[in-house]
Structure prediction request, 410 residues.
Amino acid sequence: MASETLTSLLLGVLTFGFVVPQILEYLQVSMPLKQVPPILAEYLNDAKLLEAKAYQKDNFKFKAITSSFTFLLTFLFITQGWFGEIDTWIGSFGFPPLGSSVLFFGLVFVVSDILSLPFDYYSTFVIEEKYGFNKTTVPTFFLDKLKAYLLSLLVGGGLLLVFLWLIHSMGPDFWWQFWIVAVVFMVLVNVGYTAWILPLFNTLTPLAEGELRDKLLQYAAKVNFPVKHIFVMDGSRRSAKANAFFSGFGKQKKVVLYDTLLEQHSPEELVAVLAHEIGHYKKKHLKWGMLVSVLEVGLLLFLLGQVVFSENMSLALGGTALSVPLNIIGFTMLFAPLSMLMGIGMNALSRKHEFEADAYAKETFGGKPLAEALKTLSVKSLSTLYPHPWYVFVNYSHPPLLERLDRLEH
Ligand SMILES: [Zn+2]
Prediction:
C-alpha cells in the first residue's frame, strides 16, 4: 500500500475509533430515567437514582473531553508527521537501532503519562470525590504513581527490551519467539499477583477467626475448593468501591476480600460472593479466559509481523526510512478496530460466564444472598440500572444488574 493511502487509512481508523465509542456513550447517557423497580425498592429511592444519573453524566462529559483531546493530538501527530520527526531526531544521536527504539518508546511513555496526569487527578479528586467514592489522599495518589512508574520501568521496560531486541535481531521470526515469552510472563503474573504485585500497593491481613471465616471455609470444603489463605485487603484506603477475588493455581488458592466488602455485607452474602467466584473456577472460566488471551496475543504478534518491516508505514507516519518504532505505532492504530471486535467477543463470553457463576452460587449456596449482595454493591457503586442494549453489547463484561437478579430470584 502506498504511504499516502496508508496515512488516509490511519486517519480513518483513528476517527472510527473515536466516533463509535462516543456514540455509544451518548446513547447510554441519554437513556431515560425510569421508576425504581419493585425488586430494588428497599435499596433505592428516587434521590439515589437521580444521583446515579448525575454521576453518569459527569463521567460522560469527562470521557468526551479526554477522548477528544487524545483524538485531536493523535490526528495532529499523524497529519503533521510529528511521529516521524521525533524518530528522525532520535536517530540523529547515532545509537544502534535497538537503543533508538528503546529511547523512542521511553519518550512516548513519559510524555503520554505526563499529559494524562491532570485527567487522572481530576477524575479521582473531583468526580469520584464528589460522589463519595474517593478515599485516597494526594500523597498516596502520587506515591502510587511513583510505584507504578518503577514497576513499569522494571517489568514493562524488561519486556519491551526483549520484544524490541527480538524484532531487531531475529527478523520475521520474532513473533512466535516473543509469543512464548509473553505466555510465560502471563502465567507468572497470574500465579504471583497476590504474592508480589498487590503487597506493593496494599496491605493484606489474614481474615480473623470467627463466624465469617468458619462459614467461608465450611462452604469451600463442601464444594471441594482448596483454600489456603483468606486475606482482607485495605481497599478502603483508596476507594469506597468493593470487590473480591482469588488467585493461584493448584492447591495454593488465596481468597482476597476488600475490607469495604466486609463492612457492607452479612456473612451469608459474603459466602455467596465467594461461591460466585468459585463458580468461575469450577466451570473452568479462568482457563478459557487465559486460553483466549494467549491466542489473542499470538494473533496480535503475527499481524504485527506483517507490518513491522514495511517501509511505507514508516513513511506514512512522517519518517524518512524504515523505522521499527514508527511501524509499531502505526500497527497499534490499524489494529484498534480488530481489537474492538475481539473485545465484543470477549465481553459476550464474559457475560455468559457471569450468568454461569451466578447459577453455580445459586445451586450450591443460594440465589437470595447473592442477589442481596449484588443489590448493595450496585446501589453503592451507582451503576446504571437501565443501560442501552448496544452499550451493553460492546462494553459490558457483566450482565446488567436487573437481568442477573431476575435469574437469581426466580
Ligand atoms: Zn464473576
User: Anything to note?
Assistant: The chain has a mean pLDDT of 90.
